[in-house]
Design goal:
The chain is an alpha/beta fold. It has two domains: 274 residues, Alpha-Beta Barrel (TIM Barrel), CATH 3.20.20.70; 75 residues, Up-down Bundle (Four Helix Bundle (Hemerythrin (Met), subunit A)). It is 46% helix and 12% strand. The chain contains 17 helices and eight strands. An eight-stranded parallel barrel has the order 1-2-3-4-5-6-7-8, surrounded by four helices. The structure holds flavin mononucleotide (FMN). The site of flavin mononucleotide has 23 residues, from β2 and α12.
Length: 367
């Protein structure tokens, strides 16, 4: 961990409200020794900075990833729009999309200057748009190029450069092929591989179908850890509960959760205690909403629209009586001109009133 990153982590740990403080050295030791034990996946349009701010209130140690940002967007676009984040989001990885070593190196350097803790290369996205740019999952067919990309990035930055990939593409889906890929890319300097445990079909399936149709093969990922014990192997795909996380950790170094956390963020609430031995107080749903309000006020003052933040909060009451009212009120009001914190406070009151009525038997409708 660099001095700057360590300093940021300290600030983040000291500054967090409502948390029983361990000594800073204890916290840093926890985070450093188990860097990828639990992570939230990069998800385009979903894990933006507002979403990550919310998730960070629930877990201090879970590693968060940005959405994929292309080298073109960083080198020629509105840099701050793509790369700015809240200081509280660490530990935070920037995921890059690209395949030109020099462009990736420059983008990684810029990302490191922004203070990211890790640069991750996307070798798993099968969308047509990404393929036409010759990056994402189609790069699995070019391990030598991926290795060169990693080497160029690693030369440009002192933070770790990691790779997120699949177990294969199309009919290139043998375990031996995956080993060749990982072996070659590790020679470029990659020590951490996140493996989505299903292959991708480059033709004929949409990105969404490519996240459900190809079967999950966790045994490929577990075997990788046995064959490459010096590498950190992180499994991803279809993992939906903390018990499943615990089961996976018997085989690999870490687990990356995607859709399950997005749809039910409270899943993260048990992570620090169970997987990082850090038993700090975790906010209740109400406290979480209240902790979001100052952030929301700040963002609204800076020109953000309420709906861009609240869309990530729709799942907060997942599985709780009144959840449907919460979602409906926010969906109907957050997009209106001038909408602010009141929308959330009203929705909270609705869900709590509904909960009380349900408890006392006055109302049997759930959700
Ligand atoms: C809406 C959405 C957007 C995604 N965007 C990205 C992305 O930008 N980069 C990436 O590597 N994977 C992306 N993914 C794939 C996830 O990172 C993850 O590999 C996949 O959802 C499987 O994990 P899960 O079953 O836990 O959701 C995306 C997934 C979803 C649902």
């Amino acid at each position: 961990m660099t001095g700057i990153t360590r300093g940021r982590l300290l600030l983040q740990l000291i500054g967090r409200p409502g948390i029983i403080l361990k000594t800073n050295r204890q916290r840093i030791a926890i985070t450093e020794s188990l860097t990828h034990r639990v992570a939230v996946a990069p998800m385009m349009d979903w894990t933006d900075r507002h979403c990550r701010y919310l998730l960070r209130l629930l877990s201090q140690h879970t590693r968060l990833y940005t959405e994929m940002v292309t080298t073109g967007a960083i080198l020629h676009g509105d840099r701050d729009r793509h790369l700015a984040y809240d200081a509280g989001e660490h530990p935070l990885a920037l995921q890059l999309g690209g395949s030109v070593p020099a462009e990736l190196a420059e983008s990684a350097r810029i990302g490191a200057d922004y203070g990211y803790d890790e640069i991750n290369l996307n070798v798993g996205c099968p969308s047509d748009r990404v393929q036409s740019g010759r990056f994402g999952a189609c790069l699995m067919a070019e391990p030598r190029l991926v290795s060169d990309c990693v080497a160029a990035m690693q030369q440009a930055v002192s933070i770790p450069v990691t790779v997120k990939t699949r177990i294969g593409i199309d009919d290139m889906d043998s375990y031996a092929g995956l080993c060749r890929f990982v072996g070659t890319v590790s020679q470029g300097g990659c020590r951490v591989f996140v493996i989505h445990a299903r292959k991708a079909y480059l033709q004929g399936l949409s990105p969404k179908e490519n996240r459900t149709v190809p079967p999950l093969k966790y045994d490929y990922v577990w075997q990788l850890k046995l064959d490459f014990p010096a590498l950190e192997i992180i499994v991803n795909g279809g993992i939906a509960s903390l018990d499943e996380v615990a089961g996976q950790l018997q085989h690999v170094d870490g687990v990356m959760l995607g859709r399950a956390v997005y749809h039910d963020p409270l899943l993260l609430a048990g992570v620090d205690g169970r997987f990082f031995a850090d038993h700090h107080a975790v906010p209740t749903r109400r406290e979480l909403v209240m902790q979001m309000l100052p952030y929301i006020e700040r963002e609204l003052n800076g020109g953000t629209q309420l709906k861009h933040i609240t869309r990530h909060m729709l799942g907060l009451f997942q599985g709780v009586p009144g959840a449907r009212r919460w979602r409906r009120h926010i969906s109907e009001h957050a997009h209106r001109p001038g909408a602010g914190s009141r929308v959330l406070l009203d929705a909270l009151e609705m869900v709590e009133t509904h909960g009380k009525l349900t408890e006392t038997g006055y109302c049997s409708e759930h959700g």
